[in-house]
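Fold this sequence, please.
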Amino acid sequence: MLQNIRDNSQGWIAKTIIGVIIVLMALTGFDAIMNATSNKQDAAEVNGESVSLNELNRAMDMQRRQLAQQLGEQFDASLLDEKLLREGALKALIDRTLLLQGVRDAGFGFSQQALDQLILLTPEFQVDGKFSPDRFDQVIRQMGYDRLQFRQLLEEEMLIGQLRAGLAGSGFVTDQEVRAFAALERQTRDFATLAIKAHPEQVEVSADEVKAYYDEHASEFMTPEQVQVEYVELKKDAFFDQVEVADADVQAAYEKEIANLGEQRKASHILLEAGGQMSDEQAKAKLEELKARIDKGEDFAALAKEFSQDPGSAGNGGDLGFAGKGVYDKAFEDALFSLQKGQVSVPVKSEFGWHLIRLDDVQAAEVPSLDSLRPQLVRELKAQQVEQRFVEVSKQLEDAAFEAADLAQPAQELGLEVKQAAPFGREGGEGIAANRQVVQAAFSPEVLTEGANSSALELDPDTVVVLRVKEHRKSEQQPLEQLADKLGERIRSERAAAAAQTRGEALLAELRAGKTPVVQAESGEAWQVSEAATRSQEGVDPQVLQALFRLPRPQAADKPSFAGLSLANGDYLVLRLNGVSAAEAELSAEELAMYRRFLASRSGQQDFLAFQRQLQTEAKIERF
């Protein structure tokens, strides 16, 4: 059991923990969990539990950032519907609160010892393969948490993860369902297509028609509103050459570093679980019997293979490998670190059951020399000073910019350079304009209309800028003379596409009526035949495949099914389904297992969603 926990912690949990944090941040934002008590105003109440306005505001801000990252240059903050954004963020918070209430009502639990192990064995919190308290504090501080907040976050996400995994893993499908799905998935279709070509070059467009189109769509032909900004940039890296580290500080840091080093102990154990088929007394008595046999010379490893109920270590003779303090259950750890090499403990009870523990080896801590650690320690000490100095100067820059009428004075006071960015619109641009904070600040009323300097904007952990608008270029109507040629092309393309669609729909109606039109032959258009196409057939437009597999099976060999669709290039495609064929080859055991896993997983996810809907139906939710 202990070995299982260690293995799992190194595997899926270690990989999931950071993803879990990101998911939670997407729902609630930094600090949102613990800040509810700091704001008496509530956004909602879920079965008597409040969701604070502070949480909601942070969640909305996080959603804005996610949209900006996903859409890139296409993102326009002015187009966001704040009401919809608020509703989406609040729903996510309510759903998460309901899930946490549900798992707790269902009796799910995650022990503090298990949380300790997750944290200790997570690679992101380790230095040179060992847990580092300083590294742990640094990582969670960057995320906006203290230790208590992070532990609560982790515990809640593990509880939700248990529920999700339990429901998703309980999905069940019958053999009949698997084979029916596989038959549909492996089905092939024989079809033919007839392309009705659009011919924009044959369409005549007059100047009056171009002018009428221009007038009708005038709002589409506006130049983008743009600003040109100048800015002062503060980089953290610039401070490294400005700080010095005293030898005494390096020595103190070295002593602190080696003080955290501890010996590693290699252990083997025999575990008997109590509370099921075996009581506490019986488990303890059995281990006392086994210890007596070991004391008489029987092999510990052989007895572990025969009797230990820890599947992760029993096959290896109970071997748990090397570990330092802070890894095992406290009772187990206390017993292990009280043993001499080769000694076997008396029965020890932990939260996992009863153990016999043998100390197999002791590995003394390897203490590196001061000289070997000096470059690392100097970097770390410098980084601490630089961080403090960076924060101080960032505040000075913001204060100076607030008081100044331009950026020249703050730049001169701090020895910085006033830079200029290329013009950009509300959708952003290149360089610093690729950052949404810069765009939002540049187009804010204070900066754009009132001509003020912006506040200090943190572009990333190492960069802060202050900006002001140098030039504002308002949106203007583009002259018809500049657009005439492009508008003519657009009109011809639209009319040619409409004509192709009209012809195609007429042909489609005749085909469905059982007629055999010959117009297409006269135009040089011919059917293109394809056989045995799969749902993911290469070389076939996905739009065509989607329409093909939606068509009903032909009633007879001489009665095909038809459909039509407009293509992006303006052509119209008539689609004829000639036949449907089932896969001839038998499914292998591996293929059956693959389909079963997929369907079972989908069923489990549906069960999870059904559980969520039940929680929502039964809950008392009040939105404010």
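The mean pLDDT is 84. The chain has four domains: 2-169+606-623, 187-197+484-581, 226-243+377-473, 262-363.
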